[in-house]
Every structure is written in structure tokens, then in C-alpha cells.
Design goal:
With 331 residues, the protein is an alpha/beta fold. It is built from ten helices and 14 strands. The N terminus and C terminus are likely disordered. The chain binds threonylcarbamoyladenylate and magnesium ion. Magnesium ion (MG) binds next to loops.
Length: 331
Amino acid sequence: MPQDTAQNATQVLDASPDGIARAAQLLRQGDLVSFPTETVYGLGADARRGEAVAAIYAAKGRPSFNPLIAHVASVQAARRYGIWNDWAECLAHAFWPGPLTLVLPLKPGHGISELVTAGLETLALRVPAHPTAQKLLAALDGPVAAPSANPSGRISPTTADHVLAGLSGRIAAVVADGACAVGVESTILGLAGDAPVLLRPGGLAAEEIEAVLGQPLAGRDLHDPLTAPGQLLSHYAPQARVRLNATLPRAGECYLGFGPYRGARANDLSLSDSGDLAEAAANLFGHLHHLDAQAMPIAVAPIPETGLGVAINDRLRRAAAPRDAVLPEQR
Ligand code: TXA
Ligand code: MG
């Protein structure tokens, strides 16, 4: 039987009021809808519906121990699901909507499926800034569980075409609305313990968070920054082998530069000609998708380990890791 029959073809919706209304209706009936956020495209399901959330794991082929982020429209909505504290108040005020996820203790009566939290007593919450994500969350008036909209272990999607390349025929719809401006996933902060902990570097630089909190973040100086539960080391992986900190490509390699040097081949790319880390983050996954299509090993220029460079290097280390590498505690 062909898989891509009309019955299970993925609808491509636009960000018009009709497109958003249709996307919200699909979510409401338990279907999966991919939508743009300012970081990456998410693969959304109503976070209160266990079967819908289970379908996310199935569509992505994702290991079930990896908990998901619940996306909500506002701080007020987030307060319905997480137990608030002063750090959350301060950070939500400074950075929401935006590329920051806060992990908080679950509030009694939250109604979130256990498949979202993977059985943890905490919940990851985020208010995305992308206008289309905002409109969709407002139209649904409920929490949307959404990992990045890529098959598990593959490069995250920053365009609707990336989403369709990985998941076409496996999800009900994608709301297509351009490229994601930030380009790497949200920064995840744990706020359920004695001190704020950086669980995943991402699209909001740790330095900015520390400036607002007025204190250093635990987990900030990680040699192995893989502290969010269920974070597989080999992740964001292209098909091709990836070699890091390469000041020059070797024969037979394509090149992903940073700065004015773009490598020797016509199809080589630079993350940012001017050495701008925000531009590099926005280009990261798209350029990796592009180079991966050339079926050659990819050599990547050194990226400074400051600001957004921390998130970029984290994703690159995962792209370069052996495919079966997992954290020691998950072996
Ligand atoms: O930018 C983003 O964060 C994107 C967009 C779609 O919002 N989403 C995203 O989701 O990156 P995902 O599923 O690829 O990554 C979520 C991460 C997981 O690595 C998981 O370990 C962590 O969030 N996480 C979720 N719930 C958690 C919890 N209760 N405690 C600690 N970490 C948690
Ligand atoms: Mg992901």
C-alpha cells in the first residue's frame, strides 16, 4: 500500500486566519500539526490528550523517556500548569515571549498528559514569540506539547520544507510561515531546585539570563552540557560525518565556515560572513541540511564559545558525535 495516499497526506496550511483556525481544529481533534516558532518548527499536539502526545513520539520515532515542552500563549496560562516562584516571575517578565523554557514543579490539577512530562514531577513551559505560534495557541486556548518537528536524531527544521522532508505523510498538517529567526532551540532553565540551573544552552544566551538574575547559573560551565533528561548525545545528526574546529577543509570535505572564509568549493557555506553569532545560529540547521544533501563529510570552522556560540557548539558536538552515543546513565 502506498503511504502517501490522500487520506494521510500532510496538509500545508498558511498563517492566514483560516489556516490558523484549521490548525487549531486539527489539534483539538487530537491530530499533529507542525507550526513555526522563533527557534525551530515544533511538532504540536494538545498537551492534555495522551493519545495525541503518543502520536508525537510515534511520528518522530522518539525514545519515550524524553519529556516535552508545553507551549502556552502567556505567563497567565503558564501559571495554570507550573508552580510559580520569584525566578520564574523575573525571567518570564524579562524574556517571555521568547526563546526561553522554564522547568517548574507541576501544579496540582494541571491536566497535562504524563506522556509530556515522561512521569517527572516538573514541567517545561515556554511562551513562544513567533506571531503564528501565538495565534495558534490563542486559537486553541490550551497547552501544546511540541518537540522540534524532525524525525528523532535528525537535524532540527527551520523551514516548512525541512518539516515536510522529514515528516510528510506522518502528520496532519504544517503551518508554513517562512524561516525561523533564532534558528536554534530555546534555552532551558531548571527552576524547580535550590538554584536556577542551565539544562540546555539555546537561543537566549546564558549571559543575558545571568544579567537579569544577578547571579551565575549553575551548570553554566559544563564540560558536557547534556543535563536535560533524555538528551541523547548524538542528535541533530546529518547523514554525513562532521569534523569540528576545522580551520580549513580537507580534500573530499565540504565546508561550513564562520567568518569571511567560505571554503574552497562553490557549494561551501559560511554561517556568518561577518562572524555574527545570532546570524550563525539562524543559519545553522538550514546550512547543515543544505550541506548534508551534498553527501560529503562536513568540516566546520571553530565557533567562539560565548553567547549564542555555546548553543551552536552544543548542537555541532551532537552532530559530530558517534550515532549510537548516549549519556552514561542511559546505557
Ligand atoms: O525551541 C524549542 O525549545 C523547541 C520549539 C519547538 O519550542 N522545542 C524543543 O523541544 O526543542 P525538544 O522536545 O526537542 O526538546 C525539549 C527538551 C528535551 O531535551 C528535554 O530533555 C527537556 O526539554 N525537558 C522537557 N521537560 C523537562 C523537564 N521536566 N525537566 C528537564 N528537562 C525537560
Ligand atoms: Mg529536538
